[in-house]
Amino acid sequence: MPPIALDWLHIAALLGAVQGVFLALILATQRRNQAANRLLAVVMIAFSIHLASTVYYASGLEQRFPHFFGVSYPLPLLYGPAVYLYAVAASDRNRKLRWRDGLHFLPFALVVLASANVYLMSGPEKLAFYSDLQRGIAPLQVKVTDPLKFVSGMSYATATLLFLRRHVRRVKDSYSSVERVNLQWLVWLAMASAAIWVLATGFAMIERVDHPIVRRADDIVSVSIAVFVYAVGYMALRQPEIFNFAAVDRRPTEPETPSPAPSPVPEPVVEPPVASAESTVARYERSGLTESEAAALKAALVAAMEKRRLYRNSELTLADLAEELDTTPHKVSAVLNSQLNQTFYDFVNSYRVRDVQRRIADDQARHLTILALAMDAGFASKSTFNHVFRQHTGRTPSDYRQSLSA
Known about the structure:
- By secondary structure, the protein is an all-alpha fold.
- It has three domains: 8-243, Rhopdopsin 7-helix transmembrane proteins (Up-down Bundle), CATH 1.20.1070; 253-342, no CATH class; 344-406, Arc Repressor Mutant, subunit A, CATH 1.10.10.
- It is 65% helix and 0% strand.
């Protein structure tokens, strides 16, 4: 048997497998948000086995150790469901795994059972089976399973991205700053997973093309997975809080005795579109508010922003604001959605933008940088401030200041 020779692609895949095992051990021992951590640990272990199998076949180790043949074959059916359920569990630390979640792994289990006859083969029989596969002789189960892997991967990648799109709305209903809740981490994870599936699917569609890159398709996909594993490890060490996302519970609480309505204050400067009477009444009924109570709560919300300037707290949440107003997050959210037609995130940040605009126009604040004004107004990062400011004004902060100077 000739000595094992590995190129840099195989070495990168092997190092990625080691990194994946190390990260899986760290995730499995985390005490917080255990459901999400364990799901991501499963993904890392599955990726590690896949990467190790790339080296196994590329180096000809199947000839020496044929009993490991086919171990990684059903794993692609595990990636999509595990990443999707991880996104679901990571978005809410109170989310527990349910028996119905196991249905997502049913295709993986069925393929494992269908492949049992191959796993029970002797070493020489496995080598003969592998030789047939290389010559294009494949049984029906392989012809069915191979396309199913790509359908499953692309479907779950799409489902994950759609879930996170809905998740954006839920986060902005509860937080005024999203930096600490690591929304971008979840989006990045889903997009990276989807990109790997697009790459693998593209190579599968042109596998008959005789080109050096196509001939190394499996190795290129494996290196992409290795880079993904490296990135997960980097983010885990750099931002350990990404695995500890805590969602604000917006569900209605038990019926309570209505508190006295707050005193009305002047309406905000910008009036949102008026909702239909029927839809507004329905929303009030679901929140337990009468129309007069909703109007009073709206006035109290505006007063909290305009007079008490609660928006200057960069970590202000829906629960914090509800506590300040002696009400429930569900009722505050109902009023924001029905009367102001805004998410909590947009509502608070609109006041932060107006605060910055006011101070930019104030001669006494000209010695301060725009970033300092943004931090004073409650923004938690420069990137978020620039994005929100331009969204509300149509200009960058520096352009806005220059226009006032001119």
